Amino acid sequence: MNTPLILDGKTLAANIEKDLKVRVQRIKDITNETPVLATIIVGNDPASVTYVKMKGNACTRVGMKSLKIEMPEETSTEELIEKIRELNRDKNVHGILLQHPVPGHIDEMACFNEIDLLKDVDGVNTNTFGRMTMQLDSFKCATPYSIMTILKHYNIQIEGKDVVVIGRSPILGKPVAMMLLNENATVTICHSKTKDLEDIVKRADIVVAAVGKPKFVKAEWIKEGCVLVDAGYNQGNVGDIDLENAIEKCSAYTPVPGGVGPMTINCLISQTVESAERKLGLI
Amino acid sequence: MNTPLILDGKTLAANIEKDLKVRVQRIKDITNETPVLATIIVGNDPASVTYVKMKGNACTRVGMKSLKIEMPEETSTEELIEKIRELNRDKNVHGILLQHPVPGHIDEMACFNEIDLLKDVDGVNTNTFGRMTMQLDSFKCATPYSIMTILKHYNIQIEGKDVVVIGRSPILGKPVAMMLLNENATVTICHSKTKDLEDIVKRADIVVAAVGKPKFVKAEWIKEGCVLVDAGYNQGNVGDIDLENAIEKCSAYTPVPGGVGPMTINCLISQTVESAERKLGLI
């Protein structure tokens, strides 16, 4: 019987946290400063509230501070931009997270693009994306970065592999496709207008599912020995892949929960620590 | 016998030029100003000299001015950046073209990234790429934009098609892949580390070759009815596709020369006119 490798993001994140804790302590010892992640939440979408709380908790665990900014549902784009500019100027803030999604009347991308590149630790500014794609110095979009960190940690070969990314969102499908391309994968990007998705997935050595639809990717579509990366997290604790049935065919998979999710928060925290180290001249 | 559609970029460019001429005249009539494209060439690579001359001639044909800046081979990154900043500040300059490639000791990408987004009419700044990818208002990288303009003009269906892009350069492969994705193609990006390139190309409805190697894509790889876009231009007037032998299998193709090349210059000029119109409040 096939026993696939579990790409355990939770344990990996916990291990990386130990190192981050040491780095944060070093920052404090040398500079007397504490790295700060500013988290902005607009409105009170329950899932977003939970995510922001989890991110705040992660800050606490590594010895960082989080500066929680809660803005009302009716906040305008201009007001949100003003807040971001204030945080850009704030010398005590090393990273800025604007929790996605913001209410529909706000121009989210315009707000993302106001975040100073040096504080864009969630990697959402279009220029952060552009610089990453062109392999210049930049932070990286957190969820795609989480996926890449997991694949590398578990020694999943990427170079020369046929990778199929399902989904093309600005903060997941598009950036992860570019990251995989930069690691020398042959990348196919699929989406709602793709024809014969099943046939395309059947050829993949690695599948990255980022659709946001529960069990959208069927077990029958999976090639024997494929690596499954499930970036989805839907109601009922299920991902975008029918993992339950696909497990016996794959060679490795990210569980849901406990795969991509925990490492995403870890990447956010890790980039905030890096931002602080850079600002304080420690790297 | 199969008679494929010739995706004639030369005639298309000539037709669009007529319209550009009218727009330039309108700018002059209303504002008394003339759109100006600043062209920077560093060193004297013969091909680059020719390209810059062709771009200058295109400016003249539509009634625009070009401001030719020639810098010596030994120019440093800092000196080039200083020149770009000067042009960014110059109110009479509406577009800036830094002819690619610059001498090897110069950090080309750093220079591209100094170009003001509002004057980046060649579309080479990483944030221009990022904004284009995320479908925000932006100029577009000239060669990929040329390809898209040709495909749209000749009513080549893109949505739902399997498109294979061969090449992943910052100013060709990567941006054209994102543009095709935004037009709802299913895009596969191939490169030097791709395995079984032949098999991948054989499945393509549209092939975009941007490798820079003469006749790299073989006729045997082409699916019957495929659309061939050849962005290559190699010594001996040949592209990256063995067009001579592939013509009988394809349904449409961009000739070399006379395909993507002339439209690329046209896109540069067109975006400079647009920049002037915007700056002068005419659009």
From TrEMBL, chains A, B:
The keyword Magnesium does not apply. Residues 142-279 form the Tetrahydrofolate dehydrogenase/cyclohydrolase NAD(P)-binding domain. NADP(+) binds at G167, R168, S169. Pathway: One-carbon metabolism; tetrahydrofolate interconversion. GO terms for biological process: L-histidine biosynthetic process; methionine biosynthetic process; purine nucleotide biosynthetic process; tetrahydrofolate interconversion. GO terms for cellular component: cytosol. GO terms for molecular function: methenyltetrahydrofolate cyclohydrolase activity; methylenetetrahydrofolate dehydrogenase (NADP+) activity. Keywords: Amino-acid biosynthesis, Histidine biosynthesis, Hydrolase, Methionine biosynthesis, Multifunctional enzyme, NADP, One-carbon metabolism, Oxidoreductase, Purine biosynthesis. Residues 7-122 form the Tetrahydrofolate dehydrogenase/cyclohydrolase catalytic domain. Signal peptide: none annotated. InterPro entries: Aminoacid_DH-like_N_sf, NAD(P)-bd_dom_sf, THF_DH/CycHdrlase, THF_DH/CycHdrlase_cat_dom, THF_DH/CycHdrlase_CS, THF_DH/CycHdrlase_NAD-bd_dom. It comes from the Bacteria. PANTHER family: C-1-TETRAHYDROFOLATE SYNTHASE, CYTOPLASMIC, C-1-TETRAHYDROFOLATE SYNTHASE, CYTOPLASMIC-RELATED. Homodimer. This is Bifunctional protein FolD. It comes from Pseudobacteroides cellulosolvens ATCC 35603 = DSM 2933.
